[in-house]
Structures are given as structure tokens and as C-alpha cells.
Amino acid sequence: MDNSSAARPAKAHWARSRVSAYAVFVVLLGTMFLGTFGFYFWHGHELLHPLVRTGAVLEAWRVGQPGAPWMHEAAFGYGWPFFIFYAPLGYMVAAVGALVFGSLAAGVKFSFIGSFLVGGTFMFLLAGDLARRGGSRRPAAWSLGGALLFTFCPFHLTDVFVRSALAECWGWAGLAALLWAVELLRRRPFGGFAAVALASAMLLCSHNIIAVWGAVGVGLYVLATAEGWRWILRAAGAGATGGGLAAWFWLPALKLLPLVRADVVDQFCGSSQWLRAHALDARQFFMEQYGAGFSRVGIDDTMSVNPGVMLMLALGLALAALLRGWIATSTRRPLAGLLLLCLALMFAMTHWMPWEIMPPLLRYLQFPWRLLALLAPLAIAAIALAASAIERWVHPLALALPEVALALCMLPMLLVRPYPVIEGDCQLAHWSRAMEIRVGHYAGCVALDFLPRTVDERYSDNLWLAANPPPEHRLEMKPGAQMAAPPERTATGYRYDLVLERPLLLTMHVYDFPGWTLRIDGHEEPGRLGHTLGGLLRLSLPAGASQVEVEYREPPVRQHAALLSLLTLAALVVGLSLARFRVFESCFRGSI
User: Fold this and answer.
1) Torsion from C-alpha of 191, 193, 198, 202, nearest 10 degrees
2) CB neighbour burial string for 292-309, b if at least 16 within 10 angstroms, e if fewer
């Protein structure tokens, strides 16, 4: 019997084992979310703001704005450039779910579940591939174990059920997808290049902070596990291509950031004092803690900000195996690099981290424990590489199943029902306005985060706005001006039929930001559109009867960035097609 025929049964057995293991993973994942189907939505730190944001995406889609740059009703209707600066992937998936299931709450649940399924699937593939590379005899079990340790990581559950951090959950998925794509690049140059590009774009559009730190972490992963400079350059080129695919989001965000208050990192909870105050105590890495509270200064956090004891135990076993010399020579260097990277991330989450010397971009972190989202997949990758040695001591499922059992037992204390007055999507707008009045969180953000710099701060003061409501239909009328017909509020702007006795300057109680356009009787009049000293829109209108349309469109920089993304996608498709054709042609010539 030749080698190829002998390899077929082994390959078929590996495939069957992997399918069975994946079925177990899907069943356990479904069990975790089963309890959420009986009520409208859970009560996390984000409350129902993920639903409000998803509604804004749907509203923009209906009028042909796929990027959804402006949240029309936020901030008492003054508007908010939320989706210019906030990664939209999770909310776009939620909007698709809302269209399918007919409910914003169902759509957001669909997006949360989808992030866990996507992330767990890629971690399943990554752990199995690395375990086989490390010489494991149980790669299917390591696939399942890696997916379960990733999915049921205590902080991962905190992100979904306690913090309701939809974007961050998709950041977890993006990291898992990118790490798997990097491994695929080793075996399949063309398919791996496309996978790294698409996964990089996915990560960039999932969560801003995780994307920045994830790019650093995965870049170090590439260097730690490199097989030569050619492979490093190929991975870097694929990552840059992914940056081009996602340019429609991140390029306008960076270009327009100086226009809003969030460009000052200290105002965005990025001061070294704040980061050090909310750092983790070293003991918290080895605590099994669940809770529905908040992050507090010191070790007394009342929510889970730990990676799980079983994950840390497995990481310790990987380190012990490396020190004892049980790791094959081919995997010793990449394993050592991964373990050092994990230790560096753990150090960065403690109060010993010198944040004052870090560049401002890396201080856009808010809470150091966010780096657990990067530590978990990198730790699982290291564990899988050391699988052949670890399984001498313990079966992989003996490491993962206790974490799953504990998480499912603790799940009831994490799942808290929302406010009883919220019974459906129809009440969501009233709830959002009540939250704006009560706490001043516009679209779930602190008021100064994305407030345009030109805007007077009183227009973001919830108490002042509640006591000084904007004029009816948002247009501040003056003597000599009257409306000939009832005004109309569209999904992206306002339409007025006005009769003016003389030319007038009228103020609209809407925040000024790049993207607003003015049309008078169907003709664009950019010279007649400006802003007041308080940062509100100002219209310079001529005398007589006219139809005035004020509409928000995507800023020009986003339109140019979207063109760059389309050109990058076209170049990727053409390049892969040509590469495939060359491979086919060389094989054809070789067979003649």
C-alpha cells in the first residue's frame, strides 16, 4: 500500500472527528444563549443602546447610506456622528438580523450569537491546526477544547451579558479569524493571502481599540512564528490589503477625529492615572470570578475581568513543557515567542505598566482589562502548539469542560432582565430620550466623546437641553418667515416649504459637521450653508417662496475612502485570479 492510500483513512477519520467535535461546540453554544430567547433583551451596562444604534443603521440603509454616518435622533435630535468614529460591523450584522426577524432586539441577539459562533469556529480551526502542527494525537479534541476555552472565557461572557459590548464581541471574532488566516497563509499562499486580508478588514471594522491592539499583537505573533522573511512580507502585504478594504471606515475616522472632543486621549479615559487605577492585580489572572457589577479600582471588581483558571493552568502547562524540553525543535521557538507575548500582555494589564511613555494611540484603551480579548486567543494558540506535551499530563477536554460547566452554572447571575416598561421596539425611542434626559448619555456615549468641537457645550448638557428644548421642527423662525406647508423630517434631513418677506439667516438646531448639504428648489447652495458660534447649522435664505432641503450625506472623505476600498477589492480579486491562472498554466504545461 502506498503512502497516499494509507493517508486517506487517517484523513477521513480526522474529518469525522472534527465534525463531531464541532457539533458538540454548537450544542454547548446554543445552550448558553437558550435562556435569552424568552425575554426582550438583557440588562447590561450598555442597556438598550445597541438596539438604538442598530435602528439608526436601518434608518440610514433605507435611504441608501450604507455607512450610516449620522445618528439622527441622538442628543435630543441635535444629531451625533457616531458611526463615523465607532466601528459598525456588529451593528450592521444586527441590522441584517432585524430585517430577517422583524425586531431590533432579535437582530442584536442574532449579532451577539453570530459573533460567538464566528469567533468560536475560527478558534476551533486554529486550535486543531496548531495541535496537528505540534504533533498531537488528539487534534479534534484540541479543536473543541480551544473553541470552548475561548467561547466560555469568563471575560468573554462579561462582554456579552454584563457589558452588552456588541462591537467588542465582534473584536473577539475578528482576532480569532485573523490568527487562523495567518496560519492558513503558511499552507496556501493565495487563499491565505485573501483570508488574512478579509480577516484584517473584519477586525478593523469590529472594534477600534481591539483593532489597534490586535494589529500589534498579531504582528508580533507573525514575527514570533515566522518561517522566513518572504512569509513575513507576504503576511504584511495581506494585512495592508485588509487595511485598504476597510479604508472606508478607518480613514475618515482618523481624518475627522480632530473635529470632535475624543481626539484628546485624556478625555477618553486614556490618562496614565486612569489606566493604572483600573489595572488588574496579578492575582486576578488566577481567580474564577463572575458578577454583574462594574470595574472598580483595585482587586474588588464586581464583574469578571479574568481569563479563567483552566486557561491559565493550560498556559502554565505549556510553559512547563517548554522548560522540560518536551517540545519538538520545530515548534520550540514559536511557542517561546507566544508565551513571551502572553506574559507581556499580562504585564500590560497590571499597575506596573508605564502608560505615561506609551504613544497616545495605544492609550485609547479606557480599561487595561480589555486586553483579555487579545490574551485569550494568543494563549490558546500557545497551548495548542504545546498540545503533544500537555496531553501527557491531561486530556484537553479535562481543561475545557470544567470552565464550560462553571460558566453555565454562573450564567443565571449574569442574565438580568431589562426594564419592565420596555416591551418592544415601539417604546425604544421614548426610552432613549428618557436616558438622554436622565444621565446625558447620547447613543450610549459620554456627551463629550464625539461632540463636534465647534458646538457650545451647553448643547450637550442634558439638564440644559431638557429645560431648553429645541424649536418645533428644529428650525428657529424669525419675523418675516412663515411655513407654507407642514415641514417633513426625512431619514437623513429636513424639508421645509418657506415664504420669506426678505433674505434671512435662520438657525437649525442640528450639530454642524462635514456632510450637510443645502438645496433650495432642487439646486445645491453650498455657499448659503454655515454654522453659528454655537456650532449649529445656519441657513442663509433668499426672499420669496422656496422649498428648502437640508440633508446629511456621507462626508467627502468617506466617499473617497470607499472608492479606495473598492479599488483594493478589485485589485485583490484580479491578483488572485491571475495567480490562480499561473498555477493552472504551469501545471498544464508540466503535464504535456
Assistant:
1) 130
2) beebeeeeebebbbbbbb
Which set of grid coordinates corresponds to residue 211?
483593532
This prediction's pTM? 0.93
pLDDT single digits (tens) 406-427? 999 988 877 777 766 677 788 8
- The rounded distance, in Å, linking the Cα atoms of 516 and 537 is 9
* CB distance 178 to 219 below 8 Å: no
Identify whether the C-beta of residue 87 lies closer than 8 Å to the C-beta of residue 207. yes
Report the SS3 class of residue 344.
Answer: helix
- Is residue 318 within 8 Å of residue 382, measured between CB atoms? yes
* Sheet of 475-476, strands arranged across: 475-476, 504-511, 536-541, 529-531
| φ and ψ at residue 486, rounded to 5 degrees | -60, 135
- CB neighbours (10 Å) of residue 240? 14
Digit-coded pLDDT (tens) for 464-512? 988 998 898 899 999 998 998 889 887 788 999 999 999 999 999 999 9
Residue type, 127: A
DSSP 279: P
- Cα dihedral 504, 505, 509, 510 sign: positive
CA torsion 197-172-70-456 (nearest 10°) is -120
Residue (of 492, 493, 540, 531) closest to 512 by Cα position: 531
- Kindly state the cell numbers that stand for 33: 444563549
Number of Cβ within a 10 Å radius of residue 47: 21
Helical ranges in 225-328 per DSSP H = 229-245, 247-256, 272-277, 309-323
- Name the nearest CA neighbour of 316 among 289, 351, 345, 343: 343
Element (H, E) at 544: strand 544-552
Least Cα distance to 49 among 101, 99, 90, 84 occurs for: 90
Per-residue pLDDT reduced to its tens digit, 24-48: 999 999 999 988 888 889 888 898 9
Which contacts of 541-544 are long-range, i.e. CB under 8 A and separated by 24 or more positions?
Answer: 541/481, 541/498, 541/500, 541/503, 541/504, 541/505, 541/506, 542/500, 542/503, 543/500, 543/501, 543/502, 543/503, 544/499, 544/500
Q: How far apart are CA 527 and CA 371, in angstroms?
A: 47
Q: Write out 436-505 in H/E/C secondary structure.
A: HHHHCCECCECCCCCCECCCCHHHHCHHHHHHCCCCHHHEECCCCEEEEEEEEECCCEEEEEEEECCCEE
**C-beta separation of 191 from 184 below 8 A:** yes
